[in-house]
Amino acid sequence: MALGGILTVAANLIWLERRLLALWQDRYGPNRVGPFGLFQTIADAIKMFLKEDWIPPFADKAVFVLAPCIINATALLSFAVIPFAPGVQVMDLGAGLLFLLAMSSLGVYSVTLAGWASNNKYALLGGLRASAQMLSYEVYMSLSLMGVVLMAGSLNLSEIVKAQEGMWFCIPQCVGMALFFIAGIAETHRLPFDLPEAEAELVAGFHSEYSSMKFGMFFIGEYIGITLISALTALLYFGGWSGPLFGLSENLAPFVQFGWFALKTFILIGFFILLRASMPRPRYDQLIEFGWKAMLPLSLLNLLVTGAVVLALE
Amino acid sequence: MPSLWIDGKTYEVEAGKNLLQVCLSLGLDLPYFCWHPALGSVGACRQCAVKQYRDENDSVGRLVMACMTPVTDGMRITLQDEGSVEFRAMLIEALMTNHPHDCPVCDEGGECHLQDMTVMTGHNYRDFRFKKRTFNNQYLGPFINHEMNRCITCYRCVRFYRDYADGPDLNAFASKNHVYFGRDCDGALESEFSGNLVEVCPTGVFTDKTLKEHYTRKWDLTTAPSVCHHCGLGCNTLAGERYGSIRRIINRYNGAVNGYFLCDRGRFGYDFVNAGTRIREPLASSGETKTQVPVSVEKIQQLVSEMNAGKDKILGIGSPRASLEANYALMKLAGPEHFLDGMAPKESSLVRLALSILRNGPARSVSLQEAGQADAVFILGEDVTHTAPMLALSLRQAARQVCVQKAAKANIPEWHDAAVRELAQEERSPFYIAATGATRLDDVATKKMCVPLDGIARLGLAVAHAIDPSAPAVDGLADSDKQLAGEIAAALMNARHPLVVSGTSSGCSSVLKAAAQITIALARTREKVGISLIVPECNSLGIAMLANGTLENLDERIKSRRYETLVVLENDLYRRLPSAQVDALLESVKRVIVIDHTTSPTSQKAHLVLPAGTFAEADGTLVNNEGRAQRFFQIFAPEGEIQESWRWIRDICPESRGNRKTAWQDLSDVIEALCQDVPALAKIQEAAPTSDFRIKGLRVARQPHRYSGRTAMVAHKTIHEPKPPEDPDSPFSFSMEGYRGIPPAPLIPRFWSPGWNSVQSLNKFQQEVGGELTGGDPGVRLIDPDGSDSPGYFEDVPAVSTCSGDQVQLIPLWRIFGSEEFSVLSEAVQQKIPGMSVIMNPKDAEKANLKTGSMAVIESGDMKLQLPVSLCESQAAGTVAIPAGYRGAAWIDLPALGESGRGMKNERNPLVPDPDCSGSGWHSDCGSQSDLA
Amino acid sequence: MLSILRSIWLVFLHAFARRETIQYPDEMPYSPPRWRGRIILSRDPDGEERCVACNLCAVACPVACISLQATEDESGRRYPDFFRINFSRCIFCGYCEEACPTYAIQLTTDFEMGEFKRTNLVYEKEDLLISGSGKYPGYNFYRQAGLAIGGKGKGEADCEEPPIDVHSLMP
Fold it and tell me: Domain with B33 in it: what CATH number?
């Protein structure tokens, strides 16, 4: 159910993104298919399924097919450890955060392999960019998270949420949160950091050669990634499911808590989309330079300060 | 070589030319109207003004008219000077004040010299705000449309029509800005060269009326170089096609052949290509009624495989109007001994006689260009205007050569047209005609003699004897004839370029021999002697060089019963032989295959008819009367199953069927095989580049780069734009793709140059304006006697014919419009065909009790004719001229002895015009000819 | 850094701005008169075809999608025998209108030409010819041209003298 839910959410994010972008650009966006154009995603999916599933003759077929599966699999697996509400989660791992980081690191293979298997210079360039970018940003993504881990004293996500009962970590860990969010954008190669698929110079980057539902899987994978990063941010910095319960009974509480969690996640997704609507794409060297020269020192500093404060408070 | 300074550059140029011609030859753009390379300068339009400086210190200069200024050494001029530029623009502006707002509906638009010159001088906006003067137009016959409002009074029309072509009925009327070019009243233009007004007129006053019927702009015409098929001269033409039909013919300049002009038969006789009489699909006779129905390829295969069972029983009859390649293909199919030349027996022997005369020399067969340079002419037994029209135009120039020579003595250059004419007045070169009746050149003849055919031959032989006493003498000549012979002999001997003209149209071999005799005699005393022998059809000489078999002994062949299949190539046997003989021939064989492009009585009797391409749908080589081999190229790819005759023959030939390797693939293969088999024709390979010829890797485009409607013209049939057809036979493409510069002269598909949309762009294609095309004029001469060993004289002198009682000599009468097989299918030409009538001397008529318009019954052998009579003083006594070559008329073997008389009293036949016997050779009363047809 | 935040904020504020989209086909957009849409052939003020089949539009067309054949009526008035535009090729550049010397061919504001079959985009003269004079009322080419047509003899066009009597001796 969770799987289905997430896929549905991810798919409808396409509609949401288009509507929101349109909103910020004084347009309407898709509004013809169903009420408010809600069925646009279904129409798109039907279209995508009906398209010719084309594997270029020059591609490495096995890898070419495998690549889009990886991104979906890793992103979906990550959700296994996400607590949607107290106790509402697939598995409650002690080292849940670590598992998440591991899964998102695996995601890089998808893009790299897709670029390589396509056997096309644009795709390969896209793949190369993706791997370098993801590896760079992964480093301080985990480093920036360490502040939260230090404060919560646990790698278990439910524990981290519980640790925020007094104050959401977004206040003490504001720097860490900004760092994590930026790294998250880079990890999901969303705008403004979508250099692997920079259409202006690389046609469509690593997925140039993909069509039909294989392309659809990359597409969906990207939106699952957005959801995941947003959910994580909500969990780690915005207190996850915590929020006023309006005095509801114990039985109804998890629904409200899930509601809070979902609300926070969607606001963050909205922010993702707002970034896309307002930010220009940097140059590739600027991206890497920014990662190594600004983000890494900052995250280290953040870790140092957090550690020092935590020690001092103890 | 004078050096000429133009705008800071020094050029080495030829002396004696005028400045305008020199500038144009140098590739400089200088506007002009009244000047024409063939007509010379008169300085009427003032458009070619340039500034001339006295020396390098002179900065003021003075305006001179380039066309009137001879080039001198050290001359300094400028074309770009502000004063002269302004002067030229101002003049155009003045010319344009009365020019109507007609360009969109004007046939000249897009190829208009006036448009080009207006753009060139930069006159863009009209400032004249007053009313325009207008004129009423005239009806000028079926060929030419008149729109007088557009006139800019350059006088080119009358200078061509009156001065160059000696036409009497077009003139300039009134004065100042009322000057009007037309006839004194409505009526068809009488000159056979009236069509050239279309190209001579720099704007749209005279336009092609036949083009108007299916008007197409120049930029929309698919064009390729062609050669006229309507007589033996082989004038070069450019045919234009659009939407699958031929739209017009214009002149293709060839410095050695037709120069700047064409005759009306060649220009307006093209419509047979579009006519309903065309054969467009294979037909086979079926059933009892023998009606011809379209057949499938399988049926053809079946018929042909039956034929191939008796492979050595094929009789092939070629044609003097088919290309060498087609004839050769048939010769290969039937075998040389079973291949006949397809000419009437008498005609064949005459063409062969002419060929041997040309081959043995010593006289050189002159080109049309050289004929125009002759300064003494003797014509024996031909009405040249009717049998070889463009030669007549050249001979009219020859008649003026004495003026040019006289002018040269007075230090007047030839191009100074008005001065030359003023100096010489009415003087003409020695020009003698011996004919059986009136001819269209009588007006330029010094002396004209009308005698029966043997009388012509005897006069010719007497002239030869007078030139060289060792030539056989002619006995029993009257004193006056002796004197005339002496006069002609003296004229020919005194001339620099004497020319003897004769031909096969009289049907009399002794006339041809007499002409040859004169040249042999002349060659004893001098080096350069010219001869021009007119042959009847476009490839008469070619087939005579190719085939040995003739229709002479046809009866024996019929009797031998050895043939099962008869293949007739582009030939209507009923025009060549008595119908009884043709019927016997067709019945003596099991199957008759006719390959032709137009339905004929012969094709109607065939078992299998295969659709051949006309000149517009096939490529090939023709040999003209000069012995010049010229290639004509396909204009467009026809729809349906029409293909070249040689392809049909290849397809039915057993050796080539199912054997793609050895079969001929393209025209080059045929030509190669032909050149190997027939050494006399080996040089035809040089007539034009082969099909694999490319310029910068490109073919030459048949369509101009502005060709329009490419994606819409077939959109109503199919929305998928079909690929243009491929052309394996020529270096041309059927599309716009291809080389756009100046190709080799035989491959010029159109005359166009940036800024020069009209035919005047021709200047850019010539080495020197008015001279050869760049790279030499196309065509290759096959016959060039070295003149080393002069052949002996013909010894037989014909006796005076003795006609007794009612007996008369029947002479074939050829008409420019009417006698040729295909031009008469054009609607416009049909309107010009004179009614059929016999021409008699009034004395003979009186003897036979005949009057103008009464019906004469003429009997010769088993042939009996009944035709109205026209009387003409010029017709030699004892001769009757009978129309020859008319479509649908019974075949008559002419000349012959016959009996005329027993006139049936009849009302005057309104259809019969007066014959040309008014001395000048022209009709004097207006409109007598135009509406008779 | 601040500028980035500022631009994010400004973009966010656009959520409350008016939308520019025109909801075609529910709502028709305004096309200016010089819009280059569907091509038509107009008529002169007398109701006759304006096109004189001069071929200038055809030659100006960069995709060569205009094809026509000129013909004449018995009075000498020239008009197109057929006039075909292959709109599946047309790029609506308007060169044909620029080239037209008689205001016959005009581009209109109509752009709704979608078809499922390409053959339906081949317009013949009857599909192109409208009954009015389009954007340029009043102009009649044959009133300006020197050519005589039915109803207008020589010298009867605007700004023309009556035809000259060539036989007259008057100066």
Answer: 3.10.20.740
Do B801 and B508 touch, CB atoms closer than 8 A? no
ipTM value for the complex: 0.90
The single residue listed with the structure tokens 């200038």 is C56
Where helices occur in B426-508 by DSSP H, the ranges are 453-467, 479-494
Could you tell me the CA-to-CA distances from B781 to B365, B778, B787 in Å, in that order?
Answer: 10, 10, 16
Ordered DSSP codes for B245-288:
EEEEEEE--BTTTTBT---HHHHHGGGGGTSTTB--S-EEEETT
Contact C11/A26, CB-based, under 8 Å? Answer: no
Quick check: is B410 in a domain?
yes
Q: What are phi and psi of B8, to 5 degrees?
A: 90, -5
Is the link from the previous residue into B895 a cis peptide, with omega within 30 of 0?
yes
Which chain B residues are closer than 8 Å to C79 by Cβ? none
Structure tokens at B151: 């006139």
Task: Provide the pLDDT confidence category of residue B924 given band limits of 50, 70 and 90.
Answer: very low
B683 located within any domain: no
Q: Which three-class secondary structure state does DSSP give residue B745?
A: helix
List of residues 6+ apart from B592 with CB closer than 8 A: B565, B566, B568, B586, B605, B606, B607, B608
* Among candidates B104, B132, B215 on the partner chain, residue whose Cβ is nearest the Cβ of C159: B132
**Which chain A residues in 28-67 lie under 8 Å from chain C, judged by CB atoms?**
28
Say whether B638 sits in a helix, a strand or coil. Answer: coil
Q: Which residue of A24, A185, A268 is the best one to mutate when testing the C interface, meaning the one whose CB has the most C CBs within 10 A?
A: A24
Q: How many domains is chain B partitioned into structurally? A: 3
Is pLDDT of B99 > 70? yes
* Residue C133: C-alpha distances to residues C42, C47, C72, C94, C129 (Å): 5, 8, 21, 17, 10
Residue B464 placed within a domain: yes
**Cα-Cα end-to-end distance for chain C:** 92
Query: Sheet harboring B236-242: ordered strands across?
Result: B222-227, B236-242, B245-251
What are B844-854's pLDDT values in tens digits? 888 888 888 88
A286 close to C (CB below 8 A): no
H helix runs in B97-141, sequence order: 113-121
pLDDT-derived band at B492, boundaries 50, 70, 90: very high
Dihedral, CA atoms, B551, B556, B562, B565, nearest 10 degrees? 30
Closest residue to B719, CB basis, from C54, C122, C163: C122
Report chain C residues whose CB lies below 8 A from the CB of B149. Answer: 146-147, 154
Domain boundaries, chain A: 56-313
Beta bridge partners of residue B568, listed in sequence order:
B317, B594
Looking at B72, B96, B120, the residue that finishes a domain is B96
SS3 A107: helix
Q: Alpha-carbon distance A85 to A158, whole Å?
A: 9
Probe site for chain C from B96, B97, B98, B101 (most C CB atoms < 10 A):
B101
**A308 Cβ contact list (under 8 Å, min separation 6):** none
Per-position b or e across C81-94, b if 16+ CB within 10 A of its CB: eebbbbbbbbeeeb
- Does the structural domain C32-138 have CATH classification 3.40.50.150? no
User: For residue B390, what are the domain limits?
Assistant: 361-533
Determine phi and psi for A218, rounding to 5 degrees: -60, -40
Q: Tell me the pLDDT band of B926, cut-offs 50, 70 and 90.
A: very low
d(CA B20, CA B40): 11
| Separation in Å, CA of B105 to nearest CA in chain C | 6
Break chain C into its structural domains and give their ranges.
32-138
Q: What is the mean pLDDT of chain A?
A: 83
pLDDT grade for B843, boundaries at 50, 70 and 90: confident
